[in-house]
Specification:
mainly alpha, Tetracycline Repressor, domain 2, 0% strand
């Protein structure tokens, strides 16, 4: 019998392997057998934790959303707000990339009512707002910039960018646009 700590470790390894697989996916479905193999467990263990693909996708999505929202505060403890904002944007870009590999399952989850799209936006806007307020307070970021506008700009960048290099340049431009002048 698997103990609770082993079961918890298996679940965490499955979530990590699934997040990596979804992030690397070109949008095509990720075989659950490969997720189990990458996590070092059998497919039965995967199904004990996640009875279907949607349950796994929802768990990965919620874990990643929680992480991307929480990392803003962590970055602010280690970096000035302008640097924290740019590093947070990179982390958010990774979150968006992972969502591409989960797109079909996420659509099913949202349509079922199990997850609300506005929950994601609220958490992301909250993270950006935290960094913008810190930057306005120390004078490094403009005080008149709204977090919702930054998030809308980010979504536009991620939807239209043709490469990771272009995404990086556009994110740099966005940060320059919200930086305080003078």
């Amino acid at each position: 019998m698997v103990g609770r700590s082993d079961a918890r470790r298996n679940r965490e390894r499955l979530l990590s392997a699934a997040a990596a697989a979804f992030g690397a996916s070109d949008g095509s479905p990720v075989p659950l057998e490969s997720v189990a193999r990458d996590a070092g467990v059998g497919i039965g263990t995967l199904y004990r934790h996640f009875p279907n693909r949607e349950a796994l996708v929802e768990a990965v999505y919620r874990a990643e959303l929680g992480d991307v929202a929480a990392v803003a505060e962590q970055l602010l403890t280690r970096h000035p707000p302008k640097v924290a904002l740019r590093r947070w944007m990179d982390r958010y870009a990774g979150f968006v990339a992972a969502k591409r590999g989960m797109a079909e399952s996420l659509r099913v989850i949202v349509e079922s009512g199990a997850m609300q799209p506005n929950e994601t936006r609220e958490r992301i806007v909250g993270a950006v707002d935290l960094v913008l307020r810190a930057g306005a307070q120390d004078g490094s970021l403009r005080a008149d910039v709204r977090a919702d506008d930054v998030v809308s700009s980010l979504i536009g960048i991620f939807l239209t960018s043709g490469s990771s290099e272009q995404t990086g340049r556009l994110l740099d431009l966005l940060v320059a646009g919200v930086a305080a002048t003078g």
